[in-house]
Amino acid sequence: MKKIWLGLGVLLLLLAAGCGVSRQAAKSSRSSAPVRSRQASAASTPPRPTRLAQLKAKSKAQLVYAPFGDSLSVGLFADKKASRFTSLFARQLAQLTGKTVTEAGIAEVGKTATNLGVPALPQLVAQHPDVVTIEFGTNDAVGGATSTALAAYQQALTTIVTTLQKETSAQLILMTTWSPNQGPYVNADLKFDAVVKAVGQTYQVPVVDLATIWQGHDDVTGPAGTVIPDFTANGPRDTFHPNQRGHDQIAAQLIKTLEVINSR
């Protein structure tokens, strides 16, 4: 009789242990289900394309690049117009996309976001650009980084960005101010740069920080005095504007920016 009761006790213990394992397995299965679901979801979500890939994927064979800015975008003081950063960028863009790239745009020496950027928007939109580099601020900062000047600049830059986002399908790239190393307006420039970065973050527009090129580098400007045939109307090369090395580095930064995943 004792053997019978002992056998029943062992059987009950085995059944209890089996139920516990079953419940633990069920719990483990339930807890791992969301993980598997998240992993499956992540695996099924295609990676975001780079800006360059999006331009390459466009159905048309010709792209329009529109530099929008001041004397830097005019080309002062590269060795020639064909080697200014805008033209270098256009040629590199053509090579990387396999498409013809037409350089259009609007740029004038001495202009600002307020007195050229905003008024010229209808003309720029009419060019139907695929890529726009927005390069204002260097002249805006000359009068100093007063609260009034910074607010006016932010409003103008915001208008430029939002208008182009609304009325074109262009890839936009914002550019910060230019200065020679230890130039006379560096303190103001950096405050205007902060506005550029804030606008870029708000509207998800990439920013090329030109300070990474000119800060601590004396070899990206000058030497002064050389007369460049393509820019004789603007006088000889100075120690303010980028020289050919400076233009080369600006173009390289622009291409690098297009190779980043588009967050929009």
From TrEMBL:
GO molecular function: hydrolase activity
Domain SGNH hydrolase-type esterase residue range list: 68-248
Region entry Disordered, spans: 27-50
Database matches in Gene3D superfamilies: SGNH hydrolase (3.40.50.1110)
Keywords noted in UniProt: Hydrolase
Pfam family name, one: Lipase_GDSL_2
PANTHER family in the cross-refs: THIOESTERASE 1/PROTEASE 1/LYSOPHOSPHOLIPASE L1 (PTHR30383)
Protein's recorded name: SGNH/GDSL hydrolase family protein
Organism: Lacticaseibacillus rhamnosus (Lactobacillus rhamnosus)
